[in-house]
From TrEMBL:
This is Maltose phosphorylase / Trehalose phosphorylase. GO terms for biological process: carbohydrate metabolic process. Keywords: Glycosyltransferase, Transferase. The keyword Glycosyltransferase applies. Residues 690-751 form the Glycoside hydrolase family 65 C-terminal domain. PANTHER family: GLYCOSYL HYDROLASE-RELATED, PROTEIN-GLUCOSYLGALACTOSYLHYDROXYLYSINE GLUCOSIDASE.
């Protein structure tokens, strides 16, 4: 088998359209969005999906590589840290007589970008020419290895179809971010320092060029640039293989490039074909654990696979000092900062399909606990108030001002007032522990997070003469309304935070008394303080009216003006731009799921028909001004049996990153919305709920879905679940683990490895 044939095989995409995202042509207006959509990532390296060939300054979609944790702050007063770009290691130019080969005029459809979801890599296929003298078919592949996260690989095959000419191929590794200062540059190795954060980045690379199966030495080279020149002829096949190893560390390391050189040596010994094979094997394992199969709805299947691809590529279980940003490693929006998105929208997926990744993400919050303590103390409270926007240290990185749609400076209050983040993290800690039974994590890290966040809420919620504890001047998930009192989402999540912390206190006392004694002493936790926590939990104002069954979103919400949002259907801008911020604040208009988010996360707080009442009240008042909103509504609608409405939320969420209706994803994919797509299926349509000693399922899948299949991990077990519409049946197989209890539509069943559980169920919806 020749090298060309082997490379041709690697460059051939998966032969199944359900695993392929493909786009033809080139549109400068959409290039930014496509760069996000076609991005590749392994949780450490993220590379935007630009086209394969670089043409210098005219290039619109130049590739951009981001490295998890590589933050730096510009040298200016009150600057905000952000992810910085690593050197561009994919840069290639092909020239004839010094002029770049370009895509043929009027032949835009010959350009194809193919995201192979199953294999976790990006392929391109295009034809280049120069004044009709030389025609070249160019095919490329690049990946960020899921099996060796330091490794990136680029493969390019050029088949000359017409003409003879002097060809020059330039490959380089170039720094574009001024925050990187060179420390050491030598042949195939660069080491850079960040200007202010004390980080070091090392990149080692090796390249080979083959012409008709023969290795060709570079005509010229410098430390990070290589050039080849030769005469082309029809039928000639040229293959470029480039491997790069990237490492990131801190200042003061003796040999900052040593790890990069070592990782590159490993990859070089493997050869590019084995690097590809190991990467594909790692992706096969991830798909085995996380794939969701839908029969009867090709669009839904494609959307799910796209979401799962980006979710699996966003996490790195080997590094507990980084987390997943709002746009993961696919773009620069929000400067790579971490929000509540990670714990509320992403952790459920990782907890149930990749517990090691979930644990690492929660450990990031443990390692940034001191930053949360510092923020609480700065604002005059005890315990830990996590940063609304977090980078590498846990310090608050939310900007104080941004430029609004009218180009005026707008104050940003979220960093000080959007405090539900601490309760959100506590919620994720508890959910992870319930789902995994990871007592070591709870004992050594999770308990301290719960204690310090509970302590914050107990100091934040102040008792008043009406007998209630109040939390004043906050922002809930609905960011249209600022400086409000007693946001129901915030307060009920805070109460849950305190109660779960008290539960863990009793667990530690009974199970790990020595560790509890040590933790209590270190945190100066007394029985008197724990008693005060209980009082706060019992008396905190929730906004629930037992007469109507409604939660008032915040004090005074029901007295605001009511607006019929259907009058503004079809608008192309957020409702607060249409009405103006001030008028929006005076209306019962909700930016994103708020009480509905509470209903999705804590359904037991809505007994009887109160869930349906609250959804019926708040859903029509939600303007969905955030990409996070639709998925929460979809989960709740599906649970309530409003299956077709839930499917509509599912499709609208899927369109955010998969359709080109607007240029909203230039800054990266909306990773929380992608996590929400999975949640709508698993927690919504399948009706999954987690409990300490069992799982429940109440499935209601859409009429168009013939079947739904997915797997999940729970307390050391691996389950496969199949829901079939035609037979109105549920089948659950326990592949790994001890027997367990499963509750389906309120009936209790025993599940063991000896025999799958098969249950007739009811898919009735309204």
């Amino acid at each position: 088998m020749t090298v060309a044939t082997t490379l041709s095989g690697a460059l051939t995409p998966t032969d199944d359209c359900e695993w392929i995202i493909e786009e033809a042509g080139y549109d400068p207006l959409r290039e930014g969005s496509r760069g996000s959509r076609f991005a590749i990532s392994n949780g450490f390296l993220g590379v935007r999906g630009a086209r394969a060939i670089h043409r210098g300054g005219r290039w619109v979609g130049a590739s951009r590589t981001l490295v998890a944790g590589l933050f730096d702050t510009a040298d200016e007063e009150h600057a905000i840290p952000g992810l910085i770009a690593a050197p561009n290691w994919l840069q290639v130019r092909i020239l004839r007589d010094g002029v770049p080969l370009t895509h043929r005029e009027g032949d835009g459809k010959s350009q194809h970008r193919i995201l192979d979801l199953r294999r976790g890599l990006l392929l391109t296929d295009a034809r280049l020419s120069n004044a009709d003298v030389v025609w070249v078919r160019l095919r490329s592949l690049h990946l960020a290895s899921l099996s060796h996260r330091a490794i990136g690989l680029q493969l390019i095959q050029m088949e000359f179809e017409r003409g003879e000419a002097e060809i020059t191929l330039n490959a380089s590794l170039e720094v574009s971010d001024t925050s990187l200062l060179p420390e050491r540059v030598e042949q195939g190795l660069g080491v850079w320092n960040t200007t202010s954060s004390g980080k070091r980045l090392a990149m080692a690379t090796t390249l080979t060029l083959r012409i008709d199966g023969v290795d060709i030495d570079p005509t010229s080279s410098s430390p990070l640039q290589w050039s080849w020149r030769w005469t082309s002829h029809p039928g000639q096949v040229v293959c470029l293989a480039r491997t790069v190893a990237v490492t990131c560390g801190v200042a003061g390391e003796v040999h900052p490039g040593q790890d990069a050189v070592g990782a590159l040596d490993v990859a070089r010994k493997l050869g590019w074909s084995d690097v590809v094979a190991a990467h594909e094997t790692a992706w096969t394992k991830r798909w085995h654990c996380s794939d969701v199969e839908i029969e009867g709805d090709a669009a839904a299947q494609r959307a799910l696979r796209f979401a799962l691809y980006h979710l699996n590529g966003a996490a790195n279980p080997d590094d507990e000092h980084v987390s997943i940003a709002a746009r993961a490693l696919t773009g620069d929006d929000y400067r790579g900062h971490v929000f509540w998105d990670t714990e509320i929208y992403l952790l459920p997926f990782f907890t149930l399909t990749w517990p090691l990744a979930a644990r690492a993400l929660l450990m990031y919050r443990f390692h940034t606990l001191d930053g949360a303590r510092a923020k609480a103390a700065e604002l005059g409270w005890r315990g830990a108030l996590y940063a609304w926007e977090s980078a590498d240290t846990g310090a608050e990185t939310c900007p104080l001002h941004v430029i609004g749609p009218d180009r005026k400076l707008v104050e940003v209050k979220c960093g000080r007032q959007e405090q539900h983040i601490s309760a959100d993290i506590a919620y994720a800690v508890w959910q992870y522990w319930q789902a995994t039974g990871d007592d070591g994590f709870m004992r050594d890290a999770g308990a301290e997070i719960l204690m310090e966040t509970a302590r914050f809420w107990s100091s934040r919620a102040r008792p008043e003469p009406d007998g209630h504890c109040h939390v004043r001047s906050v922002i809930g998930p609905d960011e249209y309304h600022e400086s409000i009192d007693d946001n129901s989402f915030t307060n009920v999540m805070a109460r849950c935070n305190i109660r779960r912390a008290l539960d863990v206190v009793e667990w530690l006392r009974a199970r790990w008394p020595e560790q509890w004694g040590s933790l209590a002493a270190r945190l100066a936790l007394s029985d008197a303080e724990l008693g005060q926590w209980r009082t706060v939990a019992e008396t905190i104002m929730t906004g629930f009216d037992p007469k109507t069954g409604l939660f008032e979103q915040f004090a005074g919400f029901f007295s605001l003006d009511d607006v019929d949002l259907s009058r503004y259907a079809g608008r192309s801008v957020p409702i607060d731009v249409v009405l103006g911020p001030e008028q929006t604040r005076q209306c019962q208009i909700v930016k994103q799921a708020d009480v509905v988010a509470l209903l999705a996360l804590l359904p037991d707080e809505f007994p009887g028909d109160t869930g349906a009442k609250n959804f019926g009240y708040y859903a029509p008042r939600c303007a969905h001004g955030s990409s996070l909103s639709l998925a929460m509504h979809g989960v709740v609608a599906a649970r309530l049996g409003e299956t077709e409405a839930a499917l509509d939320y599912f499709r609208r969420t899927s369109a955010i990153d998969l359709e080109d209706n607007h240029a909203a994803i230039d800054g990266g994919v909306h990773i929380a919305a992608l996590g929400g797509i999975w949640s709508m299926v698993v927690f919504g349509f399948a009706g999954l709920a987690l409990h300490a000693d069992h799982l429940t399922l109440n499935p209601r899948i859409p009429a168009a879905w013939q079947s739904l299949r997915f797997g999940l991990q729970w307390r050391g077990r691996y389950l496969k679940i199949k829901i079939e519409h035609a037979t109105a049946s549920l089948e659950v197989t326990l592949d790994v683990g001890e027997p367990m209890t499963l509750v389906v539509n309120g009936k209790v069943f025993a599940l063991s490895r000896e025999q799958p559980l098969w249950v007739l169920t009811n898919f009735s919806s309204r």
